[in-house]
């Protein structure tokens, strides 16, 4: 296999369910890398035999083996994982941007499932579901008390099967059932619009297989409406990451050709690599370069990138590349800090192993693992401050997280005190009626404080910077 094909394979099937993942297309024999510890393996076999024969009741030997594999892998770090048949299927659905369901974006409100938006053209859209509808029952299951993920599982299923949702529509003060036939849904990871004359906003919610094509189409729409764009806001808030090649492509859309976007380094030769802003580093096997359709002006349009504690992995690659090359102003809060790469290797037709195989580095050589990207301009999520950000878990909070590999981590004791204060504020906020809660609506300028500040930055107007945010790992100097 040529080096070019190796690169294409490494990038093109990369994937992530909430974290950056790359996939190797070739299965490599690794028995020669290290001798097997035969004595320990004999002990493992002995324990398996004792449990199988001596345990108080019969055990499922398949479950014993898969649990042993899961335990071994999960002990390494928070992102390495063994996929059984069910979890492997869910993983692949999450990275493809396709799943079988009814087609709604949802959140929770008062223990119920709230429709944020039906996906255009989906069964839910055709059935007339509206934003702010509340789902009270899924078939015969009462939603109150279900977690959001459990509710999602109940609404998903096989193509052409039916699910009945009981809807409470507040503005009409009535409940009614809607029976919807499930079908394959293509999720939209890109939103965008002209937020005001001369200024565009594009939000990426995840880096999926279709993200680059959707991004190009959205940019084309914005430039068609506003040919003389004065500034662009790239919104990566709460984007958990995704495909590596998609992150390289989005970075390349704004950067000069052939500059470094990100590099990776690990034990394997294939994990030591530099990705550049050039088609061969992000094009998939289909052949054509989707970025060729972009307006040339995009390379120079003034750019602000919005990030927060939920911006992770591939989002941090984009933010780090644009920051290091001085192509954009990064605005918001310190990012999640996931700077590790996971490789997914099939173990059979329907199981797999996701294993951390490398750290990644920004163009200037910085590891953001357990640190994150520090914005050029720190801005709170609301005018009242960062009400809830300190309650969010970051990479450095995860048990067994990988170190940055660039010096010791510094823990700030003051953060625990600030987190407790934020917890009390959140409890007080939760007691208020939903209409009074201070929750940002991304892309709505009168309800999105950070977006307004990003626009002020583009216009050269004063920005209301944070007076309270604490940057972790204070031994690391912020570089501009």
Automatic annotation (TrEMBL):
Residue span, PDZ domain: 88-156
Highest taxon listed in the record's lineage: Bacteria
SMART domains in the record: PDZ, TSPc
Alphabetized GO MF terms: endopeptidase activity; serine-type peptidase activity
GO annotation, biological process: proteolysis; signal transduction
Compositionally biased region (Basic and acidic residues): 409-443
Stretches for region Disordered: 399-443
UniProt similarity note: Belongs to the peptidase S41A family.
PANTHER family in UniProt: CARBOXY-TERMINAL PROCESSING PROTEASE CTPA, TAIL-SPECIFIC PROTEASE
Protein known as: S41 family peptidase
Source organism of this protein record: Ramlibacter humi
